[in-house]
Amino acid sequence: MSFSRCIACFFLLVGPTAVQAKLPLLTPAVNGGTFLPDNFATQPGATAFAFDELANGSFAIHQTENLNDGIYGNSNSWIGEQTPTFAGISLAQSITLTGFAFGRDNLGFLLDRVTAGVVEVTSEVSPNAGTADNLWTAIGFVDGTAYASPSFRHFFTLDTPVINVTGIRFSGLIGGIGSGMAIDEIEVYGTPSNIPEPMTTAVLAGMAALGLATWRRRK
After folding, report:
1. How far apart are alpha carbons 209 and 107 in whole angstroms?
2. d(Cα 144, Cα 122) in Å, to the nearest integer?
């Protein structure tokens, strides 16, 4: 088990106060609000993933794809089955992460199941539920119970943007029908990373070699 998942499990057992010594408590810049332009979580190719999801009767509406379906509300939220569990978004491209958002029910109808857990990022290609724990890096933890309007959307900006992010997940969440945490929508914001594609890199290298050869002939 990775360090970040150990912290996540510790979080479940003793609560955010003890974990705060290990990871920073992230404070939202906005409570409430709505989607911003250029939400990478809903761009073509971005996919939601989770460790598991509820599959019991009427609770089965809380599916993984609801994490980034672009619709607020309890009927479009996700709840995990087991504890600990996790949920996240695999991005269609690498970005410099500058902010993110999540909520429980941004419409304000349901105020239960407030989310608290560790926020992790990765630079692995096409991350998913099977991406190894040691390939995720914890950047802080969130505690919805500590924020104004706990069930509503919380938008966070990062003081230090994180480069080369291909995925984000909330880890160490409580699952289950009785008290499982619900995530209404995960939003991801930033700027595309300027990483050349392999073919582009090869072309640039070739051009550099040609330029060097031409310079040497002139000398």
Report:
1. 58
2. 23
Q: Which residue has the higher pLDDT, 194 or 201?
A: 194
Residue 192 has pLDDT above 70, yes or no: yes
pLDDT in tens, 87-117: 999 999 999 999 999 999 999 999 999 999 9
Residue 23: CB atoms within 10 Å:
18
Q: Which residues contact 167 (CB under 8 A, 6 or more apart)?
A: 88, 89, 90, 91, 121, 122, 124, 127, 131
Give the domain CATH number at 194.
Answer: 2.60.120.260
Range of the domain at 73: 3-218
Identify whether 28 is preceded by a cis peptide bond (ω within 30 of 0): no
Name the pTM for this structure.
0.81
Number of structural domains (the chain) is 1
What are φ and ψ of residue 106, in 5° steps? Answer: -70, -5
> CA-CA distance, 194 to 211, in Å (whole number)?
23
